[in-house]
Amino acid sequence: MTIRFGILTLSDRSAKGERADASGPALVEIIQRHNWSVVKQAILPDDESAICAVLIEWADGGEADVILTTGGTGFSQRDITPEATRAIIQREAPGLAETMRAESLKKTPHAMLSRAVAGIRGSTLIVNLPGSPMGAVENLQTILPVLPHAVQLLTNDPESEASH
Question: Residue 120 phi/psi, 5° resolution?
Fold first, then answer.
């Protein structure tokens, strides 16, 4: 099964060109290693209305099955990715965020500070990942095993019931 991904990096400094985006490329590498495709990729500043607009455009456009955001999930004043995500999703998928935090907590107590959320808009799954390359990759690897089935369910694939 091919899964189509959008990767949205959220960082004021990366959007201004002051710091290279390391998380986005790290996620691309993992996705391509699974023979899936990255169909959308962008870097935005931590601006809620801009984030909402891109998430809506990508989810409603039907080109991406899964949108991964990286960055903006912590405690800083500018970390508003979860709020932007909640504003545009129609249903939450709390098990994904809970599992990512639980697995990350085995590696660092800072996992308790993650405010990442996951949810569904239409037939697109949106998942917030941390901004650090290591955190983003580790969290993605945690949920990778369920993504094919999640996409099958969201797209009403008749094969989705075969894996129950």
Answer: -120, 135
